Structures are given as structure tokens and as C-alpha cells.
Amino acid sequence: MGKGCITVTKYFLFLFNLLFFIFGALIMGFGLWVLFDNQSFIAVLQESSDTVKVASYILIGVGSLSMAMGFFGCIGAIYEIRCLLGLYFTCLLLILIAQVTAGVLIYFQRDRLKYEMSNIIKGMIINYTGENRTTEHTWDYIQRTMKCCGWTGPGNWSENNLIKNSTLNLYSCSCRDPNVPGSEVKEVGLCEHMSTNLPVHDTGCITSVEKWLLDNCGVILGICVGVAVIELLGMILSMCLCKSVVQEDYTKVPKY
Fold first, then answer.
1. According to the model, what pLDDT value does residue 149 have?
2. What is the value of pTM for the model shown?
3. Which of 44, 73, 180, 209 could bond to 199 as cystine, CB 3.0-4.6 Å?
4. What is the DSSP track for 121-178?
5. What is the DSSP string of 185-200?
């Protein structure tokens, strides 16, 4: 490989690793958001299941590792250090294999994940009191913003312990449809209605969540493919540079 090609490869690899460092920071930031967020659908799942917390720690770990790899990749590319370039290639290969494995597992376990999510939400609705500011208030926020009621429908709220044991016509305040005449609109807690014809939204939140996932499926898939392409590019560039460094070292050895 010519010296000009080596220089171009070296700086392309440096640029790639800089991007990899930035991607790692974004992944770690997303993991921290999942771990500490209390104003979205993630907070509801996190409070009820350790799976989301474990996933957030994994994201933080992967992001931190990606940042470290990006840093050492930059050093290895600029100073042409073969051991760092080889280590960098190996780590990229392992990460790519782990990502493909995770994607395959999620795809084939999607029904189980959907079932687990349904159980988490239904369990939260059954034990809802309106006093938990993390999980329950977040679920109220979801119902208000998505204009839905319950997980599969308003009937989920009939299983709530307070509603089931009350003689009053109670319903979730965040389910309230403002277009239907009724009592005062409240944001959280349980509200009372004079008749059994409750002024709530008819659709369950599972429909809104699935619609959101379908609308953003292209973006999510594009990000995953983009990350995989960047990783493959980094592997190719690191091996090309590592091979050229080896060739240059051999030319410097005296021949007898």
C-alpha cells in the first residue's frame, strides 16, 4: 500500500473513531436516560421490572466501552500502533456479534416481551392508588397525552382494587375524555361519576404504543443498520492500516 493511501486510511480511521466515540456517548446517555427518567412509558416498566434496569446498565456499559474503544482507536490510528489496532478490531467484532445476537433474541422473543409488558401494566393498574409519583403519575401522563385508557381498553380499570371494592362509580382521572360531558377534569388519581356511563377514552394504550413503534420503526432500524455499517467500516480500515504498518516494519529490517 502506498504512503498516500496509508495516510488517507489513517485519517479516515481517526475520523471513524471520533464518530464511534460520539455514538458511544449517545448510547451511554440513552442508558442514563432510561435509568433516571420518570416522565415517560419507560418509567412505568422500570418500576415494575428489573429487566429494564438491567438493560439500562447494559447500555451504559456498551456506551462506555464504545467511548474507550473510540479513544484507543484514535491513538492507534494516529501513531500506527499495531497492538491497539488489533485489539480495536477484536472488540469491534465482539460488539457486532453481540448486537446481532441481541437483535435475533429480541425478534424471536417479541411475543414473550409483549406478554411481560402487558402483565407489568395490568399489575400496575390493579394496584393503582394515585399516590406513587414515579410509576402511577407517569402512567397518568401517558394516558392523557396518548388519549387512551387502560392497556387493552377501559375495562382494565374494573380490576383495580379501589374501584372494585368501592360502591361509587370511580374511574381513572387521566382517562377522562374532555369532549364528553362529565365531572371536572383532573390529571391524576381516581374520579367519581354520577352514572355508570363513564366519560373516558374508548381505546387502550397498547394501540397507541404499537402505532408509535410502527411510526418510528424506520428510524430505529436505520440507526441499527447505520451503527453496523460504521462498525464494519472501522474493522476494514483497522485491518488495512494494521497490515500496512506490518509491511512498513518489515521493509526496515536489514536484509543479509
1. 92
2. 0.58
3. 180
4. HHHHHHT--S--TTHHHHHHHHHHHHT--SSSSGGGGGG-HHHHT-SSEEEEGGGB-T
5. --SSSEEEESSSS--B
